[in-house]
Each structure stands twice: as C-alpha cells, then as structure tokens.
Fold this sequence. Notes:
This protein has one helix at residues 161-166; strands spanning 2-6, 11-14, 27-35, 41-49, 52-58, 64-70, 73-80, 90-96, 105-108, 111-112, 114-120, 132-134, 145-155, 180-184, 200-202, 206-208, 214-215, 236-237, 243-244, 250-251.
Amino acid sequence: MAYTLNGSTQYLSVSDTSFLDVGTGDFSIFLRINKDASSRRFLISKRVDADNFYEFEWEAANTIFLRMRIAATVEIQMQSATALSTSTDYRLLWVIDRDSSANTEIYVNASIDTKSSGLIVSATDLDLSAATGLGRWQGDGFYFDGVISEFALWTGAVLSGAEATMLEKFSPLKVRPDALAIYAPLVRGLQDIVGGFTLVNNNSATVSAHPPVIRPSAQILQFPPAAAGAIALPGFHGANRGIMRGVNRGVG
C-alpha cells in the first residue's frame, strides 16, 4: 500500500526531529513515487527560510532535482539527466558522497541518471531545525500529485549500484541495515519503524496500492535455539531496528 496525494492540499509531515539531519557525513535517500501530471511538485522539503533548506523536487520538465542550501550557500545540488514519465512507478535513490562528486549519483529504477552539469557536493554540516514535508514545499505550495511510498534514509553510507538494484524488489530493511536510519514503508500506517517517529497525514491523503515488495515478515527479535539435529531459522536482532539476517521473506 501507499499514500495518494491530490496535488492541492494533501501531504505527509513530521515536526522537527533528527529527521533528515545528516551532519557532515555521506548519506543515501530512497523514495518510491508515481506522479499524475507534468508539473513542478515537491517530494521532500525541510525548510527554515529562503537561505536554509533541503528540497527534493519533480520539476516542470519532469526531471528530479535536489538542492540543499545552508547560510545562503548551495552545498548539495544534483539533477537527473532524463525526463521521467507520468503515471509510472519510479524508485529514486540519491547517493551523496561528501568526499567525491564522482561517486555522487541519482539512480532511477536502479540505473544511474545524474546530470553532471551543476553538480555540487560539500562537507558542510547539513543539520537544520525545521519540520519536514513529504509531498509539499514547506514554503507553502507545490503539493505533489500522485503516489508516495517507501521512504528511507541511510546515514554514513554510499549505496552501490548492486544495492540500488536490490531496492527494485526488496525492502530497504534488507539493504545496508547497519546504516539505515529511517524507514517509513507507508503501508497503511505512518510509522518510521527504524527511527521511531510517526508522520502526520495532512488533509486526509488516501491509502492506495503499489507493486509488492519483498520485506521481513515480522519484527522478531530472537528465535529460540534449535534442537539437536534441527535446522536453525534465520531471525532478527537489534532493538526496534528490524535488522534481518537470512532469507525470511514476506510481501507487503
């Protein structure tokens, strides 16, 4: 399941927490979307004022654009090279290597699609004290029209092309769980099952379907020891993190 936004009033949000605070380290952000029409709309926005913000947007030309501005200086900027299509499922992965623009990429459905012109990467501290909106510009407007599902953030991690390919079918819980800081599957509920916050559904965005994803079937922290001669089952460990070991599968 996922959330469908109407493009005029509906969006998801969370008040200021450590949400999207990535400091000076590497980070990777994953979002799954399906957009209704060609128009400029915001995917993620964390904004203090015109000089301090994060903006992930779908531009009018149907490209994907990311800009992070701190103290009036653009610190991170990247744009997809190819225009995307409306009414199409996309899995977007932004991979930001703070030491190397060569390793800073946008993956669209597991394929690299970064526009090299205008790419900016810095080591500036990117923590901001502000609420965050999914599907709305926090300056008020540019509401997203379409489906948003599966939002994830890895801190201190530059995901590889192989890991981007895994995200085509597998839940982010199965990809670099050691670095996974946020995962909101948006399957009916609004909980981040890793970081612990809950998103707010503003103006009654509706629950809708999206293609199935292979994910852990339950939050099992520990299996009992296997009896002599039996096969030990793979399980989970790590408080409140849903870190999976093995190949236990579920569909959601």
